Amino acid sequence: MSKKKRFLIYIIVGVIIFLCGMVSSSFFERKVYEIKEWVSKPFLPPQEMRTVKLYFSAPQENYLLAEEREIIISLNPNREVEEILEELIKGPRDITLSSTLPSSTRVRDVWVEKNCIYVDFTSSLTEAHPGGSSGELLTVYSIVNTLLDNFPSCSYVQILIQGKPAETLAGHVNITEPLSKNPDLVKNP
Amino acid sequence: MEKLNYYGKMLFKSAKIIGGLFFLISCVSLAFADSYEIKKVDYEALPGSTKVFVEISSQVGYVVTELVSDLTPSSRPKLKVVFYPAELTFSQREIKLKENEFIQQIRLNQETLNSVNVVLDLTDKEYTYNIYPDGPSRMVINLESPGRDTIADLLRGESSSLIPEKKETRRIVLDPGHGGEDPGAIGSAGLKEKEVTLKVAEELAKLLKKESGVEVYLTREKDQFISLDRRAELANQWKGDLFISIHANAGFNKVAHGVETFFNSKHPYGEGAIEVAKRENKELSNGISSEAEMILWDMLQTRYRQESNELSHIVQKRLSEATGLEDRGTKSAGFYVLRGVAMPAILVEIGFISNPVEERKLKNEDFRKKIAQGIFEGIKEYMERLIE
Question: pTM score, two decimals?
């Protein structure tokens, strides 16, 4: 192979490496930033927490009982609503109490409009629900009472399933409209 | 030079492989694409209503057009439903119905590559129609005689039909919960709520029919899906005096047990909501807005809240006495099926199907007779109090 040809190949390889570097530079830049952030994280001030009240079902499914949790305060209130709902889905710590939502349910979206909190759940909330008026009543009002107790500036909660309003969760309680708090279902210890 | 040539060949080869892969992937995705076949069209004629069943392999969209007959003697009113996307694989193109109240014949044709026309040639009889899915692979087009529309009456200010009349016979509407594709709650031993509610309702109907001056109506008499709106509408069309919805309870906790009776809570709207709804209705040229309709539906039951409350207490007491099950008391909440019922209305939960002990009891015929007896005594006592 002549020297000329070898020189040509070196130039081509050099150009290819240069082009690759150009393309991937932004990726490396981001990675470096992530690593830097990860290293510096332990030195950030601890996150502020707040105590929230979650409502779960009493053993006989006849009323709601409150349990307290700590959640991270977020600048975005929607994030706090999501966090509270995720805790509600996880269920109570007190083993005598019962969950009010199927564990397979996920929160799809949350937003606040005027004085109403809109919460959009996956269809598992209806499909995996045990049914029955008592079970359904406690599911609906554990969501509504929990959110309205922790966000006192709002007065209604609209439950949505897969982005759309539904008649009921399992054939009983009307959830087509925004609902207000139902204090009759809560028993204070 | 030879080497470069070699690389060139390699490049060409790999391009061929990639191309081939693409072709394969597209073939596979085509094979798995949803099919929207209309496999069969059938009908069922009942007195007062006719249902057309369209068997379709997935849920698809549809557009309905009502065509009024012009003056030529051969023309007929038609109801045209266009399904989209859809492919007609059913062999028949015409179904003639013999002496049907509403439909003379059903005609089918593939309108475009992916839309199918279902045209119903109608008779001159007045009708209302309703289209709804029945399970994942069937659409139902239901035609029936127009009933008395309570909401329309309310809007026209004809509230006379809502004031209970003093009369000899009492019409009692029994509403067995769930049915058809909706099994309701299911117990751990497999008992379905829809079966229990129907059996108890039948038992209760038997007891009530023995009483003089009582007429009994059931919102469903077999294992069939009926929407909650339709149940309320039926009760109003029958001009019932009492509405008893029968359900079996369930919860997340298997230990929950007992009987409980519910009535509808007060609507959340302020005074004068009905005026707003009426005004809004006037402003809208094409019917009633969904918000206004919602308010009016809720107003219907709110008028009977006191009666419903009283009825719920009496039935709850008699039911817990007759069955020996724990008395969980009565509660009021927004129940979808009760909200549009223009008569005193309650929803009775006859025991927890999610509790294995109570599930076994609900399975037992003698126990179901006790439940029916308890509700019956409650209704009777309520009616006797009215006469006094």
Answer: 0.65
Domain A49-185, CATH class in plain words? alpha beta
B200 is a domain residue: yes
Distance CA B376, CA B370 (A): 10
Contact, B264 vs B309, CB < 8 A? no
Q: pLDDT value at position B160?
A: 44
Do B243 and B164 contact (CB within 8 A), yes or no? Answer: no
CB contact, 8 Å: B248 with chain A? Answer: yes
The Cα–Cα gap between B178 and B174 comes to 13
Confidence check: pLDDT of A27 > 80: no
Owning domain of residue B44: 37-144
What span, in angstroms and rounded, lies between the C-alpha atoms of B197 and B174?
10
Ramachandran bin of A61, using left for φ above 0, alpha for ψ from -120 to 50, beta for the remaining angles = left
Establish if B354 belongs to a structural domain: yes
Q: How many CA atoms lie within 13 Å of B175's alpha carbon, on the beta-carbon side?
A: 32
Share of chain B above pLDDT 90, in %: 43
State the best of B175, B186, B195, B253 to mutate against chain A, taking most chain A CBs within 10 Å: B253
List, for residues B67-89, the tens digit of each pLDDT value: 776 556 567 788 888 887 888 88
Interchain proximity B347–A98, CB inside 8 Å: no
Query: Are B316 and B330 spatial neighbours (Cβ–Cβ below 8 Å)?
Result: yes
| Contact call for A60 and B331, based on CB within 8 A | no
Is the CB of residue B340 less than 8 Å away from at least one CB of chain A? no
- pLDDT tens-digit map of B27-42: 555 544 556 888 899 8
